[in-house]
Design goal:
It is a single chain. With 265 residues, the chain is of the alpha+beta class. The protein folds into 2 domains: 5-165, Uridine Diphospho-n-acetylenolpyruvylglucosamine Reductase, domain 3; 169-263, 2-Layer Sandwich (Enolase-like, domain 1). The protein has helices spanning 12-19, 33-38, 74-79, 81-86, 88-95, 100-105, 108-114, 121-128, 141-144, 212-220, 224-228, 245-263, and strands spanning 5-7, 24-27, 46-49, 59-62, 65-69, 131-134, 138-140, 145-147, 150-151, 159-165, 169-176, 183-191, 197-202, 209-210. The N and C termini lie far apart (49 Å). This is Carbon monoxide dehydrogenase. It comes from Noviherbaspirillum aridicola.
Length: 265
């Protein structure tokens, strides 16, 4: 490692003031940033530890939405009675992230800001049509994810919470890397209370994306068979040592069908 300053603000306003320095980086759970620093892929001179900011934590119901603070840890979300009642698919997704240590340290806001191509939460925010709240504005999930490790966040902008509309039905299924538990392919299927279907895929491209062919098929018939019948083109999908683009294209409708079956239970 190398020398850096560590600041521990107690409020969002104090954190935002510290992050105005272009050499500052926010530190949430540290599951991605600390590893990047050890590999010299990131070299901030100032870390702003968000762990002591109470207003970034908490899970609450606001009308027909569930609002989760950006500092809420994966384990908090997985075990929350409020999440289990309102969006059990989201609790299940959180319970399947990494291992126990990762779940007890990693946070919702950190995962979304990092936007790893194989992360699970990006599929959830897309599949549920969530809104990402920051210290400056509210960003629709469709506008938030821009590319590999890239989001709509501006320099110094801080995620404070995520508002998840409570769906009529939803489920998430992933085919995971057995070592990291990142998604080789992950599919989140959500149907809102107006009957609109959203299908989000992670692990297959530079960042999570919505699968329009699956959405159209499931809008017409919300059944596993309708999902299985869809063919996903492999042209824009990733190939790596874990899976080819063709294999990922095959898995997407298979996992979507399983997600629909789970959502209908």
């Amino acid at each position: 490692m190398y020398g850096f300053e560590l600041h521990r603000p107690s409020s969002v306003s104090e954190a935002v003031a510290l992050l105005a320095d272009p050499d500052s980086r926010p530190l949430a759970g540290g599951q991605s940033l600390v590893a990047a620093m050890k590999l010299r892929l990131a070299a901030p001179t100032r870390l702003v530890d968000l762990g002591g900011i109470e207003e970034l934590r908490g899970i609450r119901r606001e009308g027909e939405a569930l609002v989760i603070g950006a500092g809420s840890r994966h384990a908090d979300i997985a075990q929350s009675d409020e999440v289990l009642r309102a969006i059990p698919a989201l609790a299940g997704l959180a319970a399947g992230i990494g291992d126990l240590q990762v779940r007890n340290l990693g946070t919702l806001g950190g995962a979304l800001a990092n936007n790893d191509p194989a992360a699970c939460y990006p599929a959830a925010v897309l599949g549920l049509g969530a809104a990402i709240r920051t210290d400056r504005r509210e960003i629709a999930a469709d506008d938030f994810l821009k590319g590999m490790y890239e989001t709509a966040l501006e320099p110094g902008e801080l995620i404070t919470a995520v508002s998840f509309p409570i769906p009529e039905r939803a489920a998430y299924i992933k085919f995971e890397n057995p070592a990291s538990r990142f998604a080789l392919v992950g599919v989140f299927v959500g149907r809102d209370r107006q009957g609109q279907v959203r299908v989000a895929v992670t692990g297959c491209a530079g960042c999570a994306f919505r699968a329009a062919p699956l959405e159209q098929a499931l809008q017409a018939s919300f059944t596993p068979d309708a999902a299985k019948a869809v063919r996903i083109p492999e042209d824009d999908l990733s190939s790596d040592l874990h899976a080819s683009a063709a294999y990922r294209a095959h898995l997407i409708p298979v996992l979507a069908a399983r997600a629909v079956a789970r959502a209908l239970q």
